UniProtKB/TrEMBL annotation:
Protein name: Uncharacterized protein
Gene3D superfamilies: 1.20.58.130
Organism taxonomic ancestry: Bacteria, Bacillati, Bacillota, Bacilli, Bacillales
Region of interest called Disordered, as start-end residue ranges on this chain: 43-72
Superkingdom of this protein's organism: Bacteria
Amino acid sequence: MSDPILQQILTALTGVQSDLSEMKADLAGAKLELGGLKSEMGDVRSEMSDVRSEMSDIRSEMSDIKSEMSDIRSEMSDIKSEIASIKEDTKLIPLIQQAVSEVNAEVIATRDTIERIEETLRGHDVTLDLLSRRSIDQEAALKRIK
């Protein structure tokens, strides 16, 4: 074969070798990037696992919160019922106050009446005492006359 053809083949082979070296370098870079991607994927999987765990914790906390809210609603219902009962009971307060006021007025009137009766009885006691003495004096006078 001739030198120029060999030279062309040699040049072509050198170009192929150069291309092959570049491909190997690119492949090594790609392998390196792939290794980095695998590492990052492992990190992502780890983070996803952490996120799933946190989501599970959040769901559990939400369930607890819902349970507490249910308890609070129940307590609020009881409180509303008690408030309604208290309102119903307090409706009677004005009537009770009026009744107490009326009873107090009756007690005062009765006390005044009793005081007047006692005063009248004292007057009657004095009158009866005088009448008794007169009667005794008159009986004594009649005895003397007889």
